[in-house]
Amino acid sequence: xxxxxxxxxxxxxxxxxxxxxxxxxxxxxxxxxxxxxxxxxxxxxxxxxxxxxxxxxxxxxxxxxxxxxxxxxxxxxxxxxxxxxxxxxxxxxxxxxxxxxxxxxxxxxxxxxxxxxxxxxxxxxxxxxxxxxxxxxxxxxxxxxxxxxxxxxxxxxxxxxxxxxxxxxxxxxxxxxxxxxxxxxxxxxxxxxxxxxxxxxxxxxxxxxxxxxxxxxxxxxxxxxxxxxxxxxxxxxxxxxxxxxxxxxxxxxxxxxxxxxxxxxxxxxxxxxxxxxxxxxxxxxxxxxxxxxxxxxxxxxxxxxxxxxxxxxxxxxxxxxxxxxxxxxxxxxxxxxxxxxxxxxxxxxxxxxxxxxxxxxxxxxxxxxxxxxxxxxxxxxxxxxxxxxxxxxxxxxxxxxxxxxxxxxxxxxxxxxxxxxxxxxxxxxxxxxxxxxxxxxxxxxxxxxxxxxxxxxxxxxxxxxxxxxxxxxx
Length: 474
Hints:
disordered N terminus, Four Helix Bundle (Hemerythrin (Met), subunit A), 16 helices
């Protein structure tokens, strides 16, 4: 029997990681928290029951984040790898207002009357209803432990899911979850300092070159001829014409450096963009001489950036309005203007970026201009407890220290069973990705720790179910 299972596992995992799942939908309320809106919508979720033990096998539940759920299902290989070991049902739930889960169809982002139901609180309530539906509708699932998984914002949701609904979720793996990236909890410059540190570790000359490049861009862009030269050298799809265009270029560059730090994986990957292994190292090879200046420095910069925007060789030009091709950016912009207010700043001294202060008033005005809403910077702290979460249990907060989001993550244990796992050579939720020969030892140890935690949580659920009267089990 064990040999047969092993053969099945190898066959399943040897299919070049072609993730297979059934696409399903569940009808849910648009508003879980009032009695004035009786509208409903269809939430999308993906299911794979290949290895599920239909007599109480656990449910591995991914708390979907800001994008189509397929993206996260196909970049969370760890769940797929351990499903056979635990005889688990795999479920990936899409977040409302992203992908196909649009409560009001094409009108969902058009007006506040339709958009006002986009929040983490509503999303978690969706997941509660979906799990209840699965437990009632699938034979053998009533006794199943539920283990939540999530990375980045999805990791925040995974942690908050366990904290908010411990009767629904038995344990959570919250990877790269910056639940403390809010005002008063984490200094606004930490993010930029970690990005800079990643580049400096590859080459101090590299981060110095980036820091120097901002002034060189401004200097060359003072003239029309300089703007034209920049547009051609950097291969921009739309030529620079105004100072606003130049600022857009610099905003794009900042996003590029941030993305490179987030996905500085030890192997080639295609999460935000197709990139080589250790992409920062590859980019920095072209920025190894900080004594260069003017056009020479910017030519070096262009050569390095080519790794980011055209690693495949298929791109013809740089589109500044599309940094990484991510969809759902408008919906996330709304969330960042309401509850997910994560202050960012930099000083150009402790980091390699242009000085930029965090100004809540200016940010609020920008949000109101675009969405007709004002941010509530302390809403997430009120809702989920901020740093006063010592009562939290059965959560693993894992963070790669190369990841700039780790600065707002949980890096120390907060209770006996809500614990921190640090991965020194890890980038953004590397531990949730599929195993690779190039994985550093620390990420392998982290995955082993996840397995032990999941095993313990499943045993606790089994024990508790055995104590309950028959009609109340599950």
